[in-house]
């Protein structure tokens, strides 16, 4: 028979060629279209990064204005979608709601589901980037029993999201620029990460010709797992559970014990065998934001810093090249902004949407791509004859 390469977890299989994102895991380097992530985090903003990922170049001022106008035109969701939300239990996890609602987008926007039409693909990309913050904010509002807030197109991307999450009809809500800048930076840091599990899911779903809304819903479902995007929620919950620095050694010991089933959340990465460059920016950002908000004595941040210090001196973590990843510090910032932990992964999802859609567009336009169809090494029963129930 055929001979296959056994590669569980795809640790040594390149499934595509891509010119979007580059990671050097040993150096701890991440480039979007060639630009280092720390330079983008310092100087750019999320919508500009969206343009860069989608079209390959930084926009001119005119291109940026045009892109922003196209995105803001699509920030509202179909009014009928409000009823779709109301079908969910109030206590649904916002990620559960998002998987369903984003999946339903293909029922609401079927004029942009023809994957063979480049114009429809473009409209779908813009719709997804524009509407994901609205959908995530609605999932949040629904879970706390507050009325949905319509998007405000005079606000920038991150400020509009904060507005949709935290404004209420009975009072004036003014977006704090410190928070909106920090959130925008979190969005940029999460915007793409080459062929990670959720992006590969989007590509695999898309390889069958499935429409982009269905593909992104599949990506959101994959992202939810605690080994992937769900780690930011799990990490902050872990830091809170640890609570005080004196309890850190106990958790380090548990993480080192393979039989405990416990891992240090926000630590380790399949590709980075050095500091995750996103974690570096995130740590500085956490210090800056908490300082500006006057809550630098935040006990969770103290625990995180001490845990990082102890782990980076421990032979178990050093020998396995386990460093803090992007999720280690992001939750501390999101918590300081007032988000409950259940919103951390939805924020990751809306930030990663541009990466998913850029990768999906690249795949659709790539003539070398065919339907994704891994093979297997069969280890089950050999051929045998059916037995009547009386003889079993
Ligand atoms: N705590 C304790 N031990 C760990 C951890 C951890 N967080 N991560 C890896 N290890 C150990 C693991 O037990 C194994 O040890 P040994 O070689 O002795 O068996 C070794 O390190 C390699 O681990 P692996 O499971 O083979 O590595 P992987 O590449 O399959 O997994 C990972 C990568 C990110 C899933 C894993 O490091 C992990 O579970 N981390 C915690 C969850 C997390 O923070 N995920 C977010 C990743 S970054 C953002 C994102 O992708 O969404």
UniProtKB/TrEMBL annotation:
Superkingdom of this entry's organism? Bacteria
User: Which Gene3D superfamilies does the protein's record reference?
Assistant: 2.20.28.60, Citrate Synthase, domain 1, Cytochrome P450-Terp, domain 2
* BP GO annotations: tricarboxylic acid cycle
Q: Does the keyword Zinc-finger apply?
A: no
Active-site positions on this chain: 269, 327
Keyword tags: Acyltransferase, Transferase, Tricarboxylic acid cycle
Q: In which pathway does it act?
A: Carbohydrate metabolism; tricarboxylic acid cycle; isocitrate from oxaloacetate: step 1/2
**Known InterPro entries for this protein?**
Citrate_synth-like_lrg_a-sub, Citrate_synth-like_sm_a-sub, Citrate_synthase, Citrate_synthase_AS, Citrate_synthase_bac-typ, Citrate_synthase_sf, Citrate_synthase_typ-I
Similarity comment: Belongs to the citrate synthase family.
Q: What is this protein called?
A: Citrate synthase
- According to the UniProt entry, the coiled-coil residues are none
């Amino acid at each position: 028979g055929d001979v296959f390469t056994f590669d569980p977890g795809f640790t040594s299989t390149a499934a595509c060629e891509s010119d979007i994102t580059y990671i050097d895991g040993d150096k701890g380097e991440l480039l979007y279209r060639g630009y280092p992530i720390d330079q983008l985090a310092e100087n750019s903003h999320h919508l500009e990064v969206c343009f860069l990922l989608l079209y390959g170049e930084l926009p001119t001022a005119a291109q940026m204005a045009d892109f922003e106008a196209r995105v803001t035109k699509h920030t509202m969701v179909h009014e009928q979608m409000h009823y779709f939300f109301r079908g969910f239990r109030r206590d649904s996890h916002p990620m559960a709601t998002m998987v369903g609602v984003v999946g339903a987008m293909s029922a609401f926007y079927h004029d942009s589901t023809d994957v063979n039409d480049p114009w429809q693909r473009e409209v779908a990309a813009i719709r997804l980037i524009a509407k994901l913050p609205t959908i995530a904010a609605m999932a949040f509002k629904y879970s706390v029993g507050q009325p949905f807030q319509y998007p405000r197109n005079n606000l920038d991307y991150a400020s509009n999201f904060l507005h949709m999450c935290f404004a209420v009809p009975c009072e004036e809500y003014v977006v704090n620029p410190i928070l909106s800048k920090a959130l925008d930076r979190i969005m940029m840091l999460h915007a793409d990460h080459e062929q990670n599990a959720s992006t590969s899911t989007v590509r695999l779903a898309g390889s069958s010709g499935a429409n982009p809304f269905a593909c992104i819903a599949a990506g959101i479902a994959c992202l939810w797992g605690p080994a992937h995007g769900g780690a930011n929620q799990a990490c902050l919950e872990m830091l809170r559970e640890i609570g005080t620095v004196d309890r850190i050694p106990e958790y380090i010991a548990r993480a080192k014990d393979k039989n405990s089933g416990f891992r240090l959340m926000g630590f380790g990465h399949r590709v980075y065998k050095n500091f995750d460059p996103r974690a570096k920016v995130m740590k500085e950002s956490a210090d800056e934001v908490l300082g500006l908000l006057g809550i630098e004595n935040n006990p969770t941040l103290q625990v995180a810093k001490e845990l990082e210090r102890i782990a980076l001196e421990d032979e178990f973590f050093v020998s396995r090249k386990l460093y803090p990843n992007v999720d280690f510090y992001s939750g501390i910032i999101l918590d300081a902004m007032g988000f409950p932990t259940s919103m951390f992964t939805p924020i990751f999802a809306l930030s990663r949407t541009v990466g998913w859609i850029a990768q999906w567009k690249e795949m659709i336009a790539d003539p070398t791509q065919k339907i994704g169809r891994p093979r297997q090494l069969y280890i089950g029963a050999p051929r045998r004859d059916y037995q009547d129930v009386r003889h079993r």
